[in-house]
User: Which sequence fits this backbone?
């Protein structure tokens, strides 16, 4: 599974941090909760495994801070077009 660039991207998280994958993101400018959207592409093997198991694991580095709410979904959220 790899992060995917998409037309609405407004930021690249960890852009200059070789320890992490660069993560294209859309950050909603006026959202009081700081809503940020990412997109991932599964390999064919991952797609088949997910299809049969119906299970998706999600790992998050919290750096020992409280976990923030997160949502995984298959539908693209509504985002106004934007370019970097």
Assistant:
């Amino acid at each position: 599974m790899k992060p995917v660039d998409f037309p609405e991207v407004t930021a690249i998280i960890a852009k200059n941090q070789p320890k992490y994958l660069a993560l294209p993101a859309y950050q909603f400018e006026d959202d009081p909760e700081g809503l940020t959207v990412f997109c991932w592409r599964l390999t064919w093997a991952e797609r088949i495994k997910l299809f049969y198991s119906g299970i998706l694991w999600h790992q998050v580095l919290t750096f020992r801070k409280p976990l923030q709410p997160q949502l995984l979904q298959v539908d693209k959220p509504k985002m106004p077009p934007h370019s970097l």
The beta strands are 2-3, 11-13, 23-27, 36-37, 40-41. The first strand starts at residue 2 and ends at 3. Residues 44 and 80 are 30 Å apart (CA to CA). Residues 44-53 form the longest helix (10 residues).
